Amino acid sequence: MKTHKEYLDLMLDGLENTKDKTPNSFSYDVLSAAGILFVEFARRFEELARKFDVDNLEGFELEKRVFQITGLKRKQATYARGLIKITGTVGTVIDEGKIFQTELGEEFRTLERAVIGDKGEIDVKVEALRIGPFGDVDKNTIKISKDYIKGIESVTNPADFTNGYGQESDDDLRERYYSYLQDPPKAGNPAHYRLWAEEVDGVGYAKVYRTWKGPSTVKVVIIDIERKGASSDLVEKVRKHIMEEAPIHWENLTVVSAKEKPIDVAGKIEVRNGYSKSEVIENIKEKITAYLAEVAFKKSYVSFAKVAHAILESEGLVDFDDLRINGTYDNIDLADEEVAVLGQVKLD
Q1: CB contact at 8 A, 318 and 271
Q2: What is the pTM of this model?
């Protein structure tokens, strides 16, 4: 982009009806003022031109551009939901909106009014108060009734909560945009089934297998937005959504979660002064998890070298030795329907 002086010099060079082009002359001052506007106009034109490239967009601007061209919408975060089991006095009423929480303080609200029956217990639907993966808690961790309710003796969640998902990132939305343009969905082709599956909130990626069990059969394998195996709830949401869109019979459609393949890491590490070993190990876990997310449903193996590189990039690490992945010093192969997830990390 030209500077103010460059615009001014161009205009002065093209001025032929006067010889006085010195500073403070009429011609110089008028063209200097115009040059300031030209610089601002050029800046705005350059900014506008950049916005035609989705690689330069983020947030709402990216969402709007992608939607205008393809109709794709950003996948939104979801609230974790599940059942809690409440035991207590027969006839005790638990109103909708009552708050229960884990020992760590993660809160859930009841979604319905319930009454403890003759068995002295009842299952109640609850939803996390915070949106996203914060509500994904292990079983038997929701133990506290924040609101005092006379007649309640105990509360727990018999199963893990696994259906709280984060919002789709700019990079993931941009990737779906390019996939849509480069492999257009049409007439129920595999790209069409992948589109239907991947537009469901909480889904990361999908693989599609046509005629996998004979003519007119379709198998869709999904992972969640965290690049892990999908919950049964998410699998069912995808199945129902595809059935609403696709010209296919129920019996010919199969939707399953990818199988998680644990990646166990072992070895020896040297920690930098000022860091604890546990702190560095957590940093290593984050780096390896990020790498595994990058290769999920994109690579057929986990690279030993890339895992080593992720470890080396971890904050607080000086060096490592005798690194093993799943007990070997080699790459780890992944089957078509497998997704690699971080398993045990034993670093002495």
Answers
A1: yes
A2: 0.79
Contact call for residues 198 and 205 (beta carbons, < 8 A): yes
> For 116-157, where are the E strands, in sequence order?
121-128, 142-145, 152-156
Burial of 13 (0-12, 13-18, 19+ CB in 10 A): exposed
Q: How far apart are CA 237 and CA 234, in angstroms?
A: 5
Decide the pairing of beta strands 203-210 and 152-156. unpaired
Q: Find residue 199's DSSP bridge partners.
A: none
Identify the H or E element spanning 203.
strand 203-210
* Contact assessment for residue 100 and residue 124, using Cβ atoms and an 8 Å cutoff: no
Q: Please identify, in words, the CATH class of the domain defined by 170-257.
A: alpha beta
In the prediction, which pLDDT does 21 show?
A: 80
- Give the separation between CA 140 and CA 160, rounded to whole angstroms: 8
Tokens 């945009």 map to which residue?
177
pLDDT of residue 69: 94
Helix (DSSP H) and strand (DSSP E) numbers for the chain: 8, 16
What are residue 121's DSSP bridge partners? Answer: 87
Q: Which two tokens stand for residue 187?
A: 């007439």
- pLDDT at 42 (0 to 100): 87
Average model confidence (pLDDT) across the chain: 93
